Amino acid sequence: MNLPTKQADGSGRFYEYVIDNIRQMIADGELQAGQKLPSERELAEKFNVSRVPIREALKILEYMGVLDSSPGDGTYVKNTSAQSLVSKMDFSFDATADTIRDLLELRIVLETFAAYHAAQRRTDEDIASIQKLLRDMREAKKVNDGTEESVQNLRKLSHGFHQALVRAAHNAVLSSVYEYLYELLDISRQFTINNSGISYSSIVAHEALFSKVIEGDAEGARQCMEEHMEDVRYNLKSTMGTDHPGQKAAFG
């Protein structure tokens, strides 16, 4: 493969730089459908970036249908069609910039609504399900060794918590909309959970929110979720390079 010709623009959005170069390699025929990509470490060295933007770029390209990730095997080129590389990539650039913020705003609307109604409508089954997720989250944090597998497990548990809370609201339309948009919402989460997974303070925030749900305090649950999402918003700004006062702990 030739060395990448496009350079990071200094804005801190190195994942866009990686996406752009992988896109160009596919368009130029340097990467073919079915071909395995180099490892994250090799890609990081090639593009002269850390592994974090490499993971972000691969995740977005996978969602867009350009790449396919096989756990324990690697990442492969899935689609090299012009439609995939042009229209989907155009969307992915929106998704990695302004649309990411739009998705976060959508999360705030949906999840504060869900928290409020979950406190009013949760069942014993909902409570048991969320309690287990929180226990598993704490255990996973204790044994987190920083490997990709550990980080992905923490992310999965955090995502599961938010999904369970939406289900506990027992609003069929909300659940349907949330499930439909989940893949898009997941893009925003990958930017708000850093490469160490989630922080203990984030777990505490999840637990405080759950306490309000158990108590049946709808307004308290809504406020807890709103505060949690404000921390997520701050972390997103830091991650995407728009604020630089010192990045806060990861949330999701």
From TrEMBL:
InterPro entries: GntR_C, TF_FadR/GntR_C, Tscrpt_reg_HTH_GntR, WH-like_DNA-bd_sf, WH_DNA-bd_sf. One of its GO terms (molecular function) is DNA binding. Gene3D superfamilies: GntR ligand-binding domain-like (1.20.120.530), Winged helix-like DNA-binding domain superfamily/Winged helix DNA-binding domain (1.10.10.10). Residues 130-157 form a coiled coil. It comes from the Bacteria. Keywords: Coiled coil, DNA-binding, Transcription, Transcription regulation. Residues 12-80 form the HTH gntR-type domain. SMART domains: FCD, HTH_GNTR. CDD domains: WHTH_GntR. This is HTH gntR-type domain-containing protein. It comes from Flavonifractor plautii 1_3_50AFAA.
